Amino acid sequence: MDIETLNGVSTMEVNIGITEENREKIAEGLSKVLADSYLLYLKTHNYHWNVTGELFHQLHEQFEEQYTELAEAIDEIAERIRAIGFRAPGSFKEFNELTSIEEDVDQPKAKEMVKRLAKANEQVIRTAREALKPANEAEDEATIDLLTERLTVHSKTAWMLRSHLED
Length: 167
Prior knowledge:
CATH class: Mainly Alpha
Order of helices and strands: EEHHHHH
Strand order of the largest sheet: 1-2
Number of helices: 5
Helix content: over 70%
Shape: elongated
Radius of gyration: 18 Å
Mean pLDDT: 93
Number of domains: 1
CATH superfamily: Ferritin, core subunit, four-helix bundle
Distance between the termini: 62 Å
Number of strands: 2
Low-confidence stretches: none
Largest sheet: 2 strands, antiparallel
């Protein structure tokens, strides 16, 4: 067992068959997916609380399903970052620096909420695709599986949201 001491804290070396350099690239990609997922969670939860209009009941329930799923996913993503030996970002400041999801500065109407959530889910897909590259290069199947699941969930969610906008 190799134990390292950094800043007075002892840690065991991570030896999972993926180089530290590759693990760091994977952790950076996952951190961006985590930040995007967290900001999408906040946006979705906000819309759940504040949606009004004729679609209220349907959207209120749909948004709740989505933010509940995101809460579980956020935990899995953060735990994967830790499992490969890196600190998971966990503050709003860190998330804000890493995310590509736009924060709302207004209170949109129901259809605009749906449109923004569809776009935000599509952004998470793009971020996850970028994060897949270093995971594929390192043959990190656990991260590939996690990101593939995220792609599946966000693709379906974006499709369901876009369906509300069709005439």
